[in-house]
Model the fold of this input.
Amino acid sequence: VLEKKKITLTEHEFVVTLHKSLEAVRTVTFYIREKIIKTLIESGINVDVFGDSWKKSPYADNKNLIIHDDIDFEKGLDIMAQSRISLNVMSWHKGGMTERIANAMLNYSVCVTDETSYINRHFVAGENIVTFNLDNIDKLPDKIRTVLHPRKFCRMKIFRNILRKMRIRKL
Done:
């Protein structure tokens, strides 16, 4: 973005500017995540979440929001391996991907995530990942229902495609 706007910063100026923006980025990410969770639980989809902060959520009393205690990284991988779907909400780095996406795939959980330019370039929606657009969050519940429906969606096809992709090139 800085290059496009022809802004030049020293390393120190960049670090200071980045640090100042982190709280805004976190706030936007939490807002989007909450909006996604609200959309899903209000449409009747059960969503398991982890961490005590969810107990303070305005949706904590919704029967479709299943709040679990904090877990460590290793336990998170075990849970992914038992899950049919792993919902990922990207932070505001919309040109990349996170280890959560790769971990979901490596643990045979269908990754459902918002789009980024990297994901759109390196994956095929419906073939090895399920994506949604943040401008159309209202369509996400139907995508989730399709993934959960055994006759409408073949999870094994996704897993075969992921394994093929991992053999062909690195994520």
